[in-house]
Amino acid sequence: MEQSISLTSVSKKAKIVTILLCLGCVFAIFLLIPADYRAYIVEMGYLRWTGLVALCAVILIPLHEGMHGLFFRLFGGKVSFGARLKTSFGPVFWATSPKMYSKRQFQIIGLAPQLLTVICLLMLGHFSPVVNIGLIITAVGNLLGGVFDIYISVLLRRFPAGVLVRDTRDGCVIYR
After folding, report:
1. How far is the C-alpha of 172 from the C-alpha of 106, rounded, in Å?
2. Distance (Å, whole) CA 38 – CA 33
3. Which residues pair with residue 175 across a beta bridge?
């Protein structure tokens, strides 16, 4: 028996709860920004701020998907990467593998990019204000970009240990 989970199959209530939880985490992360950094952001001006956010996004997306790809390979899979720039959710990027993974392996693969969030937050305070603000933007962007990964990892907890999971571009298929 198989069950498919994709962005389109997730209930509206689950999407809202997941997004609200992540926004709460984002708010908590932004509370880490000291007052003098907030003043620095204002002094940067709109153009520099936009440039910094864009630079962080350009760096973040390959790192995030690369982390998925690294762990797919560590567990013996062949990886392919892709993107769809126009979807109802905005641009979507992915790393995927046709191999079947154990539930535990798939949860590790899904949550691996959040190591990047933790690393960014641990490095805070060791650099100039601009770099620290960039680390915060990267951590927040990575957390938000991984919302569906986190959702699937939590959802998999409901399944028995023996299930196998295959990744798809839009989600995963769970085999019992």
Report:
1. 10
2. 7
3. 2, 164
Q: Given pLDDT bands bounded at 50, 70 and 90, which one contains residue 89?
A: low
- Locate 171 and state its tokens: 């989600």
Angstrom distance (rounded) from CA 146 to CA 142:
6
CA distance 107 to 158: 12
Does the pTM surpass 0.85? The reply is no
Sign for the pseudo-dihedral over CA of 8, 11, 16, 18:
negative
Domain boundaries, the chain: 2-175
User: Packing angle between helix 114-123 and helix 35-74, nearest 10 degrees?
Assistant: 140
For residue 49, the 8-state DSSP code is H
**Encoding tokens for residue 39?**
């003043």
Provide the CB-side half-sphere exposure for 89 (13 A, CA): 14
Q: Which residues have C-beta within 8 Å of that of residue 47, sequence separation ≥ 6?
A: none
The pLDDT tens digits for 93-127 are 899 999 999 999 999 999 999 888 888 878 877 88
Q: Which of 141, 66, 149 is nearest to 106 (CA)?
A: 149
Retrieve residue 169's tokens.
């571009």
